[in-house]
Structure formats: structure tokens, C-alpha cells
Amino acid sequence: MIQQTTDSRTASSPAAPAVQYRDAAWASELLGGAHDADTVRDTIARLDESALEPLGLGLFYMNLLAALGDRVDPGEVRRLALAAARTKLWRGWEFYHGYMSSLGHDPAVATAPRLLDFDPERLRSLLAGGKGLMVCSFHLGDYRHLPTDMALAGLGCTLPLDTRACSDYRQAVAATGEERIRLVQAVDVEEPGGARALAKALAKRQLVFAYVDGNTGTDGPMGDQARTEIELLGYPVRVKNGLMRLAARFGTPILPVYAVRRGGGDQRDPGTWVAGEVLEPGGALRGEAQESFVREALEHLYRFFETGVREAPEQWETACFYHRWRAGTAPRPIEETPVDVARRRLEEGIAGGRVLRLDRRWVAEVRRGGASAWADVRTLRAFEVPAERRSLLDRLAADAGVDREWLAAHGGAADDALELLAPLAGRGLITVEDRRAGSPAQEDEFRGGPWSSPLSSRSV
Length: 460
Hints:
Helices cover 41% and strands 16% of the residues. By secondary structure, the protein is α/β, with parallel strands linked by helices. It has two domains: 2-325, no CATH class; 339-447, 3-Layer(aba) Sandwich (Malonyl-Coenzyme A Acyl Carrier Protein, domain 2). Helix 4 (57-68) crosses helix 5, helix 10 (242-250) crosses helix 11 (287-311) and helix 13 crosses helix 16 (414-426). The relative contact order is 0.13.
């Protein structure tokens, strides 16, 4: 077992080839041309919400709120969303520029496996069984180092990726000065030949390494072909099943792994290799036996994935895509109140001196272009926010809430306001509470949150 603390903290060697990657141009603009790792890390740590919007900060918040809102305070979810967006940017730069560009060129960057507790002998033992091996992971933590560490330990693999990621990875492999990294053979699974390359590797009893939450194939990540419905983080999701079908077809054992950075320490520290239980098909499967194994394998993998997400949600880089996988239903039935009944309760609450507040556990604001909407994260149903009602909705989301005094001071248009709010109240998104004045400190803290400085995204 390897306990390696390779230091990749130095800046890339000036002689190292430049590597482009997804988000590279955007990152370069934000970082002002910085190339020193410490400067880059510190710059990313200071990026505010507006700077992180192009990276899908609104979707990080919306999806983490859906996954964690029943047990984590919305303010903490906001912090996790910011951390996840920054993690995605920093670790992309760190891997491609600070590591791959320097590996084999800069003697300060060690050429041994980087991850703590990495156990290549277990992989060799599984491969020795003569059935090949499929190692499955997720876009969580130090996932980029999983296949490269295997290569540095002398274990080659076939790595299925989407078109852009495949191009990035091939370029990075070409740029590195370490020959063992070329043991990783990236294949584009969005091209027709990708699945054939995977089948060929498994037929030869070789090792395939895959990020199963990439959820893509020849129909792309938004396609609906070859999907199975399972559960993840309390919601039904539809995920790609092609890899599991290949494992069943060739009788290939499956090993789930992830690598997260633990201890809350330096963001440059290496991650820890975490492996789950091996899932054995027990031989080549067809028909009903294959279908049963595919479902069992996906449930096994995503339960393991959920364990990692709950351990380190701020390191979940595909949190911004979680809504794409969801089947669109809530984890449990939502009791809806008729709109007229909900409105009557709002009226009675206001008349009785009570306060209306948004239930921030279940609502996230998402902006596209100049439009703004509130999304019920349980159902992904969106409610448009009229521009002329911006102040009302901001107040509703603030700690102070909306009461009759506030309505009177802002035009007294209570009827119009309640007409707008009744549908939200009917779905349990607005609470009627006893008056409880928030302290100035509480209100100031919330002004820095996702409602007064709206989280946004390219698309929902």
C-alpha cells in the first residue's frame, strides 16, 4: 500500500508545454495570467459569486440544496456551493498546469503515485483473476489523479471520456514528460468507435477505468438512450447503463473508488484513495440475468458515490449537473394546498400580525439572461420572478420577512402581493410565522447570500 505525499506545489517549469483544458480560457482571464500555484490558489479563493457565475454557481447551489437541504442549513449549503465552484476551477488548473505540464519536466514534481492509501497490488490481484477489471469512479475530489496514479504504478487502462474531456486528456498526456502516463488510453465515447474500444479492452481482460457519473454516450450527456432509474441522494435519477452492460457481457468484476482530500487542510494536499466492495457478475451474463446485474451494479456504485458526496460535498464537481439526471419527482409526496386556501391563510397571517417568510430549505434562485426564477429544488418546478416584484420577493427571502407594516410602507398592494405568493404557499414554500425580528447582524449576513446577490447559471 502506498502512502505518498508527492509535492506538486511548485509553479510549472518554464520549459513545460502549455496544456489547454475545459474552462482554461475563462480561468486565464479570471487569473490575470498568473502561473504560480500559490498565486492562482489565492486568487481563486477570493473570487466572489459574480465571478463564479459562468461556472454554474447557481446550479451548484440549487442541486446541493436539493441533496442536503433537509439536514444542512441553507447558509452552509451556500458556502458548500461556493467551495465546489472554486474547487472545480482550482483543481482543473492544478492538474493540467501544475501537475501534467510539469510531470517529467520539473524534477520538483515527483513521478510516484500521488494519492494516499493507493493500493495497486489489490488491482493487480483482481486482474490476475483473468476476467479483466472495471474500476469505476466519479467527479469527486482528486478524481483526475486516479488513472494517472494507476499508470505511474505500471497499470495501464482504457479511459472513456466525453469529446471535450478526451481532447483535453490526450493533449495533457502528450505534454507530459513521463512515459508511464501514456499507459492511459483515452477514448471518446461520444463517437461510435468508443464503445467498441471499451469492449475490445474487456474482451482482452484488460483494465477499464471510468467516471460513471459522466453519463454520456453517442447521444451525449442529455440523451435518453440506455438509462436506468435508481436513487441518488433521496431522489430518483436516470443514469447511463452502458458500462454495466459491458461488465455483465464479459463477466468483468467492478471496483468502485473515489479520492477525497480530508482533514480540512491545505487545498494542495493529496487526496485519499477510498475503495468499495468488488461486485462480481459471476460470469458472462445475458437476458434477465444481465438486466438484474446492471441495476444491482448501478445501485451499488451510486450508493458508494453518495457516501463520498456526503463526506465531501464541497468536492463534488458534477453537483452542477445533478438536476440533469433527476427524474423530476420529489423524494416523497408533497402535500399541496389549494391556492384559494393558501391565500386565505396568508391573509389571516398578515391580519394577525404574523410574518411571511420563504422556506429557504427548498427554494433556489436561478437567473438566465435578464430573467429570474425561483426553483423548487424538490420538483425542479420554476416560478418566474416579475421584475416589478423584486423587492417583495427579496424581502420574503430575508430574515425579516414580509409583514403588514412592510406591505403598507411599500404601496400597500397587499392583494397583488398575496395573489403572487399564494401558489408558492400552496406548495409549502412560504411559511406563516410568529413575529420574530432578526438581529441586524443576521440581516447583514443574509444580504451576502444567494438572494440579495443572486446565484445564476447558463441554463437549468
